[in-house]
Amino acid sequence: MIPENFIQSNLQGISFIGPELILTLAILLILLVGVLLPYWRHRILFTILAVAGLAGSVLPLWKLPQPAPDLTYLSNLFVWDWLTFLSKPFFAVVGVLTILLTQVTGEIDNSEYSECTILVLAVTMGMMLLVASTDLLMIYLAFETMGILSYLLVGIRARDERSGEAALKYVLYGAFTSGTMLFGFSLLFGLAGSTDLLAISQKVAFASQHPQDRLLLIVAILFFLAGLLFKTASFPFHFWCPDVYEGAPTPITAFLSVGPKAAGFVLFIRLFYPLFATGHDATIYEAVSGLDWPSILALVSAITMTLGNLAAIHQNNLKRLLAYSSIAHAGYLLMGIVSLSDLGLRSVVFYLVVYLFMNVGAFAVVAMVASAGGSEEIDSYRGLGARAPYVCVAMAIFLFSLIGLPPFAGFVGKVYLFAAVIYKKIYWLAVVAALNTVISLYYYLRIVKAMFLEKPTETIQIQVPLSSRVLLLALLVPTLGLGIYWQPLARVVSGMF
Amino acid sequence: MQPILDGLTLSPWEPGLFSLAIYGLMVLGLVSLLLFFASWLGEKKSNPEKLRPYESGIIPTGSARLRYPVPFFLVAIFFLIFDVEAAYIFSWAISYDSLGWAGWLQISFFIFVLLLGLLYIWKKGGLEWGPTSKQD
Lengths: 497, 136
What we know:
Number of helices of chain B: 3
Shape of chain B: flat
Structural class of chain A: mainly alpha
Helix content of chain A: over 70%
Number of strands of chain A: 4
Strand content of chain B: under 5%
CATH topology of the domain at 70-123 in chain B: Methane Monooxygenase Hydroxylase, Chain G, domain 1
Distance between the termini of chain B: 65 Å
Oligomer: heterodimer
Largest sheet of chain B: none
Strand order of the largest sheet of chain A: 1-2
CATH class of the domain at 70-123 in chain B: Mainly Alpha
Strand content of chain A: under 5%
Structural class of chain B: mainly alpha
Distance between the termini of chain A: 40 Å
Order of helices and strands of chain A: HHHEEHHHHHHHHEEHHHHHHHHH
């Protein structure tokens, strides 16, 4: 017999997953419309439904109680803190931008468009669930919801060989790493006898005193890292990234480079901070004694950013180049995780928000140029500044922001990340990151040079549709605006931790 | 709080990477030594009879690489999906009394989603067996 109050509390908890429920309804509606109206496949209908679903998913947030760090719901599977609360609109924005980008670039066929919007919504729902989870089983379930559906998204162009190859590579890497992570979960469950992160964290501090259990914990941490570093495209598990980013449709690439990556970093915060770190006072954490994961991550961070930047130098395909740049950015973001302070966590979240706009912007330009008759190779960007000035200026701004040059948002984000590392006195990592910024200057500026300083091979003006221009403007405003007036975002972010 | 192993370990096991490495090297060395001796000392006389897949005297016929029809896999996957979903309905049926109308509504929604999925694969031609499907 199930106790009555258990059922009651579960029914009340349902209101907390309002955003996910609304997304589910939107998915079902699009599925139904896509099936029942097969000969009336207007893209705009699916786009409107999907954007409305994503916008609607944010609405219930303001009806719900004030977030608190210890407010859990649905049998302690989820926690309702500020990180959960603010991640949901973030992922909704990621989803909206992706869907608008697929709409304006037309890279995905009409016959696959409804499935594409469904999958984007479903991955968004998975990410929303993932950031709220505080239970190993729920984390894994949401992680796989996000993962398996994004493999499908990569292979959405079923007849395209490159898309299929990318999807297969993504599946194989993903299956291997998430299986490894699950093994880590099982080790931790065996040690603590619970899947609840709070319950485990109490055992971990004690278990790390014993050499046998400590070895087990170290193995568990290494196994977690496999899954997390895969999702964030960081060093030993980054090999899939260039191939998948190149083979996937460009809007989907933009989606993968910010959505699952951000979810991976939030999972870092969710998993590592409660389990393997103890809060000193409210602002500084310390790794549980005997488990020196911050040093491992610092090393991973340094290698990731160096490798990403060095590999990007030789790329001539812009999607591959941006893929390596996204690997490098995973390295920068790891600096915030390594620094073990609230300052570091805030800087990670801040940088993720900034990175969303500038990276989606860069991929949007690539998609728009490709759909306007150009290609993804750097050769077709030669002299493009004269042929499509608006798009090229936008691209230059996104690239300058990705480098981290002063008037743009990327600069502020990087300052916070560097500050976090220097505050923790990990000077060598700050030096490595600074050197990497200089390296990255070269390959980003190579594109800018090709666009503005080289002679065009053709002189015909490229016509970019108005809808694309508006979307670019929507991405430019935050990239510029957050570089000049970032206090509102900083204030929101500092309320989170 | 109780220690997790609480002195009840069967043997005083001290994990050491050094002993593991020594052990690993010994295993590796032994295996490679055996393989080396087998290939060095062993007789190697091959004739067509020996190279047959079956040395029992049965002459193989045809290719081993049969091609299964793709719809077979599709139907297998559909079965798997709907079969797993039935497990959720069983768990609802067991606690049917205490879940009440709220539980009934939730499982109805769940079944509705399943039916929608069935409608989708039906309309998409996933259930059609043969070359006349809509996908061609």
